[in-house]
Amino acid sequence: MSINPFAAALAISLLATPVLAADLGSYDQPSVGGWDGAYVGVSGGMSSPNLNPFSGNKGLSAGAQAGYNTTVGGAVVGGEVEASYLGDSRVKVEGGRIKERHRLSAKGKVGAPIDQTLIYGTAGLAMTNFRDNGNVAGPDGWKPGYILGAGVEQKLTSNVSARVEYNYVITNSVRTFSNGVGTTGNVRDHTLKAGLNVSF
What we know:
By secondary structure, the chain is mainly beta. It has an eight-stranded antiparallel β-barrel with strand order 1-2-3-4-5-7-8-9. The protein is elongated, with a radius of gyration of 18 Å. The termini are far apart. About 15% of the residues have low confidence. It is found in: Cell outer membrane. Keywords: Cell outer membrane, Membrane, Signal. This is Outer membrane immunogenic protein.
């Protein structure tokens, strides 16, 4: 399987984040609020088969997320689950394109807190639901894949924060049919989204 260079860079940044966090851990943090605890939130943005999410075949995405963070050795680590509607973004397959409709994901997260800003990387598993498009028939049910990402989150109050996040998703072995001919291939997409989280 070929490796997307942008995804590889994200994975490297995810591994490097704890080192950065350790260096920053000695600085005093303002008292607006820390990152520890559970949170829920909503997000919206663009999903596209291209790195530029505002290019052709894009779809408006919307979702909700819930997660938990804790501080370990100066780094913020945690996990998050997310459910998203992908707006029928049209991803390329052999013989044409199919639509991406819904996604469920479970991700781990490692971040470096800088004052009230959190810079983080994320990686995990994703399940995507596809739809037919034109003469191309997509697969039934949910298909598993991998998700990589990075983001920046900013505290607005002690329990409200805003964030921007990028995700790259690859879904392996997607079976499609075009004009009666079946093919199997990997599907890739990019999502850029902004969101709000409320911690408690």
